[in-house]
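Deviation from plan, reported transparently: adenosine-5'-diphosphate complex.
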Amino acid sequence: MLKIENLRFKYGRRAPDVLNGVSLELRDGEIGILLGRNGSGKTTLFRNILGLCAPDAGSIRFDERDLLKMNRRERARLVAFVPQEVRFGALSVFDSVLMGRIAYFGLKAGREDYEAVERILAEMQLSGFARRNVEELSGGERQKVAIARAMAQQPRLMIFDEPTGNLDIANEQLILEEARRLARERHIAILSSLHDLNQAMAFGDRFFFMKNGGIRYSGGAECFTTDVIQDIFDIEVKMLEIENQKVILGGSHR
Ligand code: ADP
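Because the crystal trials were delayed, the predicted structure below was used instead.
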């Protein structure tokens, strides 16, 4: 379980707090979604979890292990990151995924590492692409390779930054389903930012609404109310129910 308590962070000694006491919990196999306007602190929170920024106060633990005290290699075996747009360089799909194993093999990959990559490629139906250059793939395929690389780290927690940002609707669906499968079958905890509220409701188990560097609301899908959305995004929306599913209709600014 991921447990963040009272996290505080600012980008400079005299700068204002960007995270001002963030606390959240996410269980194994759960998908947590961070929602909030641009600048509310989502990326900064990710950077703290990934060890790219060091918080001024608070704690980040996974199963009682202190992430803030881990070195890069230890952390890479626990937490993997899937960025919005991956730049792999001119590598084959196989080698791109193999890079995810670095935390395990150090300088030279061994048979175990090659086998792990083959397994993951097969599982994600990427075996046919193994020798292809990643730069020649479509956005959706590249994103799948990014997830495969993260999987190669055998993480317990995966962080997704707007995973569907640059994808068409079919690929969006594919990536979210793939992520959901990993959470359910591998019991990996997933923490993701997402812009689309309907997509978020369909994909997530737990929701964290951020504003001004803090989590204003958190909980299950019941959190999605017109009042909450108005407070967080400053827009008025309509909520409908279609076939027993809540649907949010994009609103107007107040
Ligand atoms: P989000 O991901 O929700 O859009 P960010 O975490 O990127 O939000 O930004 C939160 C706040 O931190 C914003 O006010 C932003 O201007 C500030 N910020 C982000 N990155 C930096 C940086 N490298 N240096 C200084 N301020 C930053």
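Residues 11, 18, 36, 38-44 surround adenosine-5'-diphosphate (CB under 6 Å). We consider this an acceptable substitute for the interim report.
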